[in-house]
Amino acid sequence: MASWQVTATTIYCDAVDDDVTLMVYKDRLTRCVGYKKYIESITKETAKELKKRAKKLGRELRCEGPECSRVIVFRDEVFAEEAAAKS
Q: What is the value of pTM for the model shown?
Protein backbone atom coordinates (compact mmCIF):
# COMPACT_ATOMS: atom_id res chain seq x y z
CA MET A 1 0.00 0.00 0.00
CA ALA A 2 1.07 3.59 -0.47
CA SER A 3 3.29 5.30 2.09
CA TRP A 4 1.17 8.44 1.97
CA GLN A 5 -2.16 9.12 3.65
CA VAL A 6 -3.83 11.77 1.47
CA THR A 7 -2.97 13.98 -1.48
CA ALA A 8 -4.86 17.03 -2.61
CA THR A 9 -5.01 19.58 -5.38
CA THR A 10 -7.05 22.67 -6.06
CA ILE A 11 -8.63 23.03 -9.49
CA TYR A 12 -11.07 25.33 -11.23
CA CYS A 13 -14.40 23.53 -11.47
CA ASP A 14 -16.54 24.80 -14.33
CA ALA A 15 -19.58 22.96 -12.93
CA VAL A 16 -19.78 25.53 -10.10
CA ASP A 17 -17.51 28.27 -11.55
CA ASP A 18 -15.22 28.16 -8.53
CA ASP A 19 -11.94 26.72 -7.28
CA VAL A 20 -12.40 23.47 -5.36
CA THR A 21 -10.01 21.17 -3.53
CA LEU A 22 -9.95 17.50 -4.49
CA MET A 23 -8.53 14.93 -2.08
CA VAL A 24 -7.54 11.33 -2.67
CA TYR A 25 -6.85 8.97 0.20
CA LYS A 26 -4.55 5.95 0.02
CA ASP A 27 -7.56 3.59 0.20
CA ARG A 28 -8.83 5.22 -3.06
CA LEU A 29 -11.60 7.18 -1.34
CA THR A 30 -12.08 10.66 -2.75
CA ARG A 31 -13.49 13.92 -1.49
CA CYS A 32 -14.32 17.22 -3.13
CA VAL A 33 -14.64 20.28 -0.91
CA GLY A 34 -16.93 21.82 -3.52
CA TYR A 35 -19.44 19.01 -2.99
CA LYS A 36 -19.66 19.86 0.70
CA LYS A 37 -20.01 23.59 -0.03
CA TYR A 38 -22.49 23.35 -2.91
CA ILE A 39 -24.53 20.25 -1.97
CA GLU A 40 -24.14 18.97 1.60
CA SER A 41 -23.90 22.25 3.51
CA ILE A 42 -25.25 24.80 1.07
CA THR A 43 -26.44 28.04 2.64
CA LYS A 44 -28.89 30.57 1.25
CA GLU A 45 -25.98 32.91 0.55
CA THR A 46 -24.06 30.25 -1.36
CA ALA A 47 -27.14 29.29 -3.39
CA LYS A 48 -27.75 32.95 -4.22
CA GLU A 49 -24.13 33.42 -5.26
CA LEU A 50 -24.26 30.30 -7.46
CA LYS A 51 -27.47 31.49 -9.12
CA LYS A 52 -25.89 34.91 -9.77
CA ARG A 53 -22.82 33.31 -11.39
CA ALA A 54 -25.04 31.04 -13.48
CA LYS A 55 -27.03 34.01 -14.77
CA LYS A 56 -23.83 35.87 -15.62
CA LEU A 57 -22.46 32.84 -17.52
CA GLY A 58 -25.78 32.07 -19.18
CA ARG A 59 -25.84 28.43 -18.13
CA GLU A 60 -26.88 26.27 -15.21
CA LEU A 61 -24.26 25.67 -12.54
CA ARG A 62 -24.59 22.53 -10.47
CA CYS A 63 -22.16 20.33 -8.58
CA GLU A 64 -21.98 16.90 -10.18
CA GLY A 65 -21.51 15.10 -6.87
CA PRO A 66 -18.77 12.99 -5.34
CA GLU A 67 -18.24 10.87 -8.46
CA CYS A 68 -17.74 13.66 -10.96
CA SER A 69 -15.24 13.22 -13.75
CA ARG A 70 -12.78 15.74 -12.26
CA VAL A 71 -12.46 13.72 -9.06
CA ILE A 72 -12.13 10.43 -10.93
CA VAL A 73 -9.46 11.80 -13.27
CA PHE A 74 -7.42 13.17 -10.35
CA ARG A 75 -7.72 9.86 -8.43
CA ASP A 76 -6.63 7.88 -11.48
CA GLU A 77 -3.67 10.22 -12.09
CA VAL A 78 -2.49 9.85 -8.48
CA PHE A 79 -2.54 6.05 -8.63
CA ALA A 80 -1.02 5.96 -12.12
CA GLU A 81 1.90 8.10 -10.88
CA GLU A 82 2.32 5.81 -7.89
CA ALA A 83 2.31 2.72 -10.12
CA ALA A 84 4.87 4.31 -12.45
CA ALA A 85 7.10 5.20 -9.51
CA LYS A 86 7.04 1.60 -8.29
CA SER A 87 8.07 0.28 -11.73
A: 0.88
